[in-house]
Amino acid sequence: MSERSPEALMGVMVQRSSLQEIRELTYKPRDAWWTVLLVDPVAARLVRLVAPYRRITPNVLTVIAMILGLGAAGCFLMQGRWWLVAGALLFHVSFVVDCMDGKIARLNGTGSMFGAWFDFMFDRLRVFLCAVALFGGQYARTGNEAYLWTLIGVTFLDLFRYVNSHQMTRTRTDMREQIEQARGPVAATDAEDAATPPPVLLHGPRARLRHALQSRRIRTHLVSGIEFEMAVFIVGPLTGWVIQTSLVAGALLLTFELWLILRLWQTTRAFPVALAKAHAEAAVTGAAARVKTGGERAVEAQREAAISQ
Description:
The chain is mainly α and 309 residues long. The protein has helices at residues 6-10, 19-26, 33-50, 58-77, 81-108, 113-142, 146-183, 188-195, 204-215, 225-239, 242-308. The longest helix has 67 residues, at 242-308. The protein starts with 5 loop residues before the first helix and ends with a helix.
């Protein structure tokens, strides 16, 4: 069998990036603590291995994550204690691979609108199938209807979290765009001042905790959809407390979601005042600019008159 030429290999491989470059280019500024502590250290090293091979695209990794998720669901269906452990481990591996697709997309610039949709839909399908397999399998084994009610609750909370997150992001984006549009063009000095972060004032244990988490890229929303899924499909099967773990994780997720909704409500209530202030600032800035322009024109006219004399 003939070997490939270096020119042919260049079509499927690129130079391997360093681990530090991968961290700088692919890590999110803020992420779930489960991802930061238990996934990123492994995923970054795996990305370094596979990133040079351009045939391993983000969509390919999404499909691999889905296959691993189906394997986890199959293990959950077997119902036995060690099958639950195997399913939990496979689910974690599938999540690691799922995190790799976004990192590959950011590193190689191979992301796409379809890829984002593809990843999201397969994530939801994987979670739903694993939930049906886990709780349906335990119901078949025990006949306890509590597993079916827990299945309904887990499915609802997972969908609620992602739909709510999407809608809140849209609402915040709309408010920000309206305020930016009301302000109009910003002076360069103002833009530089806005880009300069204010100094961190650590007053009280809550502020210090927030700073400690953010300095490690951990978002303060400690129980999000990711932690919820990991609790349900990893911690629960590993400990054998499938219902109990799901109930605790669901309660914590709902608590944090209600807190975010409260903050959004407070922001929307303050939005009309902020928008009116932006319009007023734009009017003042425009008036000042017109006065300045008029003064400059008067000076220019005087200069031209003096020259003509």
